[in-house]
Amino acid sequence: MGFYTQNLFSSFTSASSWFEVYAAFSTFTMLLRTAFIQLIPQQFRSFIVSKLESFFSKYQANSEIRLKINKFWDKNSGDRNELFDAAQEYLPTRIIHTYKSLKVGKLQGEKHIELAVYGSEDVVDEFEGTKFTWKLDEEGSKQDSNNHNKKYSFELTFNEKHREKALDLYIPHVIKTYEVMKAERRIVRIYSWLDDDWNDSELSHPATFDSLALSPELKKDIIDDLERFLRRKEHYKKVGKPWKRGYLLYGPPGTGKSSLIAAMANYLKFDVYDLELTSVYSNSDLMQSMKEASNRSIVVIEDIDCNEELHARSIGLSDDQDSDADNEAAKVKTSRFSLSGLLNYMDGLWSSGGEERIIIFTTNHKEKIDPALLRPGRMDMYIHLSYLKGKAFRVLASNYLDIEGDHPLFEEIDELLEKLQVTPAVVAEQLMRNEDPDDALEALVTFLKEMDKDSNCDLELRGTSE
Q1: Considering the entire predicted model, what is its pTM?
Q2: Residues 162 and 68 both lie in one domain
Q3: What pLDDT digit, counting tens, does each position of 166-223 carry?
Q4: Do both 200 and 305 map to the same domain?
Q5: What is the structure's pLDDT at 109?
Q6: ∠24-26-31 over CA atoms, to 5°?
Q7: Contact indicator for 364, 251 with CB cutoff of 8 Å
Q8: Whether residue 257 is found in the same domain as residue 360
Q9: CA distances from 191 to 12, 293, 362, 442 (A)
Q10: What are the φ and ψ backbone dihedral angles of 185, each rounded to 5 degrees?
């Protein structure tokens, strides 16, 4: 047997022997092809071809890469995945003419028609000759009709040979397109914390710095401070501080705190996150809400002096056994949310994941705020919004009555405003009662004189009682 194999192998060593083998194999292949075409029926041939194509397509599918894009990077940390937001906005604009499962509608308070990917249908996007397939996955119970309890994610699929193009070119292209879209639309949104999630709508407040009833000097100070903050990113990085700025707005009700916040958001094109502390149940809840807030945003905590959890921070156990129940209740309340949790966030321990953020606290009573919140580095600028005076009144006259320049009644109104404590909201309400500018100003003078008379009477009565 070994002798036979050796002779057979040696017979193939010549070139002519190799040619004979090739000729024989070619002839066999042609005969097999002819037999396949002539002897096998067309229908059966098509069946065989389809099975072969299916086999190789399945084999090819095994080389696909699937990327999971969740709304949050980690459900425990709560870090928001910007790629999810980018895909959500990017896909409808790219596939609106071909995709058959788009969700469309106009939400209350919105100015534009909204489009969103909907359903589980594959979405194919072509980028530089390469196809990328997207699918929206929905996690949660089908019986659950509450969308807030459902979790969504995108799945991006592409061939393995396009791995570098997907990671280095396509995904950055999606994010960059999303950023350009946001810049072009320049739509500011307002978010409210509810049921452990941010619920958003378009910020429709029209306030601008031009329309605010503030003194020109105060407006300039605020705008200069905002501009300085925006251009000092490298400075914050150099000194090792989070890139954030803290403002305290304080003054009587009706002096324009909410309007100033809206004007700042519209000026900067920053989204607003309105955090009601009564909806925050623990320090971890606060951390989660702040981590989910986007960069380039304004976090607003209103009426900070009215939060009972912050005032109860120093309540301790008493030696008096009769008050054990009250002390235990205080401990439970304090465990829900504490001043230290808020201070940690303001000091940057929890906000290090976000950049270019502004934190605004509002209060009607600055003297009631815990001093720990007011130290330098936490509140960078105090903005006192006080009662209406002459310069700020000119803005209201322009906004509500279209009066530019001077008016014969302005001097008398200025004198009355100097003596009285009247808010911009009260004066604005008076100006709206008449469409004619002269009638409106005359009615305002009458109103202010009545206020002045009443205040003098109150002073006289207090003097008599003393």
Answers
A1: 0.64
A2: yes
A3: 999 999 999 999 888 877 777 788 999 887 788 888 888 889 999 999 989 999 999 9
A4: yes
A5: 57
A6: 95
A7: yes
A8: yes
A9: 81, 9, 17, 42
A10: -75, -35
Domain that holds residue 131: 64-139+150-185
Count of structural domains, the chain: 3
Asked if residue 453 is part of any domain, the answer here is yes
CA distance 351 to 331: 27
Confidence grade of residue 228 (pLDDT, cut at 50, 70, 90):
very high
> Which residue carries 């909907």 as its tokens?
118
> In the predicted model, what is the mean pLDDT of residues 339-343?
76
- Lowest average pLDDT, out of 316-325, 366-375, 409-418, goes to 316-325
Mean pLDDT over 453-460 rounds to 64
In a domain, residue 211? The reply is: yes
Write out pLDDT tens, residues 254-276.
999 999 999 999 999 999 999 88
Which pLDDT does position 400 carry in this prediction?
92
Same domain, 345 and 423: no
Q: How far is CA 87 from CA 110, 136, 176, 277, in A?
A: 21, 10, 11, 32
User: Which of 377, 312, 315 has its CA nearest to residue 339?
Assistant: 312
CA distances from 252 to 57, 98, 325 (A): 72, 56, 37
The mean pLDDT value for 242-253 works out to 91
Looking at the chain, the whole-number percentage of residues with pLDDT higher than 70 is: 68
- pLDDT tens column, 281-328: 787 888 888 878 888 899 999 888 766 555 544 344 334 444 454 444
